[in-house]
Every structure is written in C-alpha cells, then in structure tokens.
Design goal:
Keywords: Amino-acid biosynthesis, Cytoplasm, Isomerase, Lysine biosynthesis. Helices cover 17% and strands 44% of the residues. The protein is of the alpha+beta class and 262 residues long. A hairpin with a 6-residue loop joins β3 and β4. The termini are close together. The chain binds ligand LBFN2T5F.
Length: 262
C-alpha cells in the first residue's frame, strides 16, 4: 500500500499529515507510525496526524507522537492541521475541530500560513520546587533559568522527564529565559524523547505560568522565541482561571509525497 502524506511545520515543530476522511488507513500501528517519523529511515517528524471526519465539527485531529504512541494535545500540530484542512478546502478562514482534549476554534490568514488556535481553559497550576507544573492539553514542567542558549536541554530535560514524579506518565520539560519584551523557551518533548524546535502546548504553559508568577491579571500578550521561530500567546487571567487562550504562529506546508508501507 502507498500512503499519500503531507509534511508541515510550525516554528520548526514538524509533522506528517494524512487525509484519512475515507478511513482507508488503520493508524493503530505504533511501529509503522514510528518508522514514518524516523529521521533516518523514514520521512522524519516530531509527530504524525490523521485528519478525519467527525459529527458536528469540520474535522477531527488524531495525533501520535514520533514514538508512534497516541498522545495528548499538540498545539503546533493543531495549527498545522488547520493549515492542512484549509488546503483541502474544508473551511475558508475559521474552523471548529475536535482533538483529544476537546473542541478547538481556529482562524487562519488569507495566505494560509499563520494560524491562531484557541486552547483549552486552564485552572490549576501546581508547584514543584521552583518549577510550575500544568496541563494545557498536554502536561508541562516549566522552569526559569539563565544562559538558556548554552543549557544542555536534552540531558536536563530527560532527567526531569524520567524522575520519580514523572516517569510513568511522562512530562514535557520547558526552560525559560526572560528577556523582558519576550521569553526564550527550549523544550524537551515526551514521546519524541528529545529537544524539539518548538512546542505549542509548552509555550502556552510557559506564558500562563509566568503570568501567575508575576501576578499579571487581565489581558495578556506574551511573545515567545523558540529555536524554530517566534510564537505569540494571548489570554485572559482573572487571578484563578486562564481563558480565551490563543496560540498564534506560522504553520507551513513543506512537501508532499507517497511512501510504501510494507
Ligand atoms: N509538540 C507539541 C506537544 C506534543 C505532545 C507532547 N509530545 C506530549 O506527549 O505531551 C505541541 O506543540 O504542543
């Protein structure tokens, strides 16, 4: 069987996308998905997504991490699948779709490469020592640091992700350096088990945790620089709940092709 795939990236977080509206591909095959995401023996990606039909929404996003296992929400993946759905003419400029964490609204630029994605509301932010722990659709550990450009994010992120508190469920680990007018963020991603160039639910978690840290209530707009580009997070914080959270940034088509499945 030949699989027709599309490759997209959002700030360097890269994904394989498959139009599975006819349900022709059975994606519950972890080894095949992991092989497709492999950067040396496959297409190469941080994750793979299937766009499917579902009742009451424009489409459903079914997301797997690069290890081939089903995952929680992927923010940059969500932005990329919106760009893919526009390419497939599923909607014009606004869409409502279903993901593993529920309903998402998104808006796309006319050129089809800049996506504002509404994320789930967030209430609970826990503390673990000097770090914040929260779920923005996926679980995140957020820690402030200095000299982030020189940090060994792979080793330190991996150690936290595999520590006693987080080993069984796993967690994504985000390090932040505050530059005043923007935050610089680097993320070790669960399921990729490596540092990625960007993580959408991760930068969302960072923006919310920093608003709590600085007690910034009201309308917030946080600019974030990641290894693969720039992202923006808008939200409202009333001192308890974060709502109207939007993750905004580039979502770009890279290439498409066919791959043989054995
Ligand atoms: N890249 C993502 C997060 C994908 C899920 C994550 N690897 C996990 O297992 O929690 C994003 O952009 O949010």
């Amino acid at each position: 069987m030949k699989l027709h795939f599309f490759k997209y990236q959002g700030a360097g977080n890269d994904f394989i996308l498959v139009d599975n509206r006819q349900n022709t591909f059975n994606h519950q095959q972890p080894q095949i998905l992991a092989d497709l995401c492999d950067r040396r023996f496959g297409i190469g990606a941080d994750g793979i997504m299937f766009l499917q039909n579902t009742e009451g929404f424009d489409f459903e996003m079914v997301y797997y991490n690069a290890d081939g296992k089903p995952s929680s929400m992927c923010g940059n993946g969500g932005r990329c699948i919106v760009a893919f759905a526009k390419h497939l003419n599923i909607f014009k400029d606004e869409t409502n779709f279903l993901a593993v964490d529920g309903w998402h609204y998104a808006k796309i630029s006319e050129a089809g490469d800049w996506v504002s994605l509404q994320m789930i509301d967030v209430k609970d932010i826990d503390e673990d020592g000097d770090a914040y722990v929260l779920n923005t659709g996926s679980p995140h550990y957020v820690q402030c640091t200095t000299n982030l450009a020189d940090k060994d994010v792979f080793s330190e992120g991996k150690a936290i992700r595999n520590s006693d508190n987080y080993r069984s469920e796993g967690i994504n680990v985000n390090f932040i350096e505050d530059f005043g007018d923007h935050l610089f963020v680097r993320t070790y991603e669960r399921g990729v088990e490596n540092e990625t160039y960007a993580c959408g639910t991760g930068v969302t978690a960072v923006a919310l945790a920093m608003a709590k840290h600085k007690n910034h209530t009201g309308e917030n707009n946080t600019r974030i620089k990641v290894l693969g580009g720039n992202l923006n997070i808008r939200f409202n914080y009333d001192g308890k709940v974060f709502n109207n959270i939007f993750l905004e940034g580039p979502a770009k088509f890279v290439f498409e092709g066919y791959v043989n499945l054995i």
